[in-house]
Amino acid sequence: MVTVIISVLLLVMYRQLITEQEIQIAQHIEAEVTRYQNLARVHDRLGFAKQVSAAAGQAVFVSWHNGAHVLGAMSYIPEDLPIYPQTKEFMVFAGGSHKLFVLTGGIAQTQMGPVLIATRSDHLVTVFDEFIGASITAITMTLLLTLTLGWLFSKAILRRIQRYQELSALIEHGDYGIRFPIGGRRDEFDVVAKQFNQVLDTLESNLAAVRGVTDNIAHDLRTPLSHLRMGLERLQTLPSDQVADASAGLIEELEHCLATFDSMLSLTRIEGGQRPLEREPVSLHELCQDLQEMAEAMAEAKSQSLQINLGLDRTISGDKHLLFQALFNLVDNAITYAGTESTIVIEQHEGMICIRDNGPGIPEDCRERVFERLVRLDPSRQHKGTGLGLSMVKAILSRHNATITLKDNQPGLIAVVEFEC
Question: How confident is the model at residue 239 (pLDDT cuts 50, 70, 90)?
Answer without folding.
Answer: confident
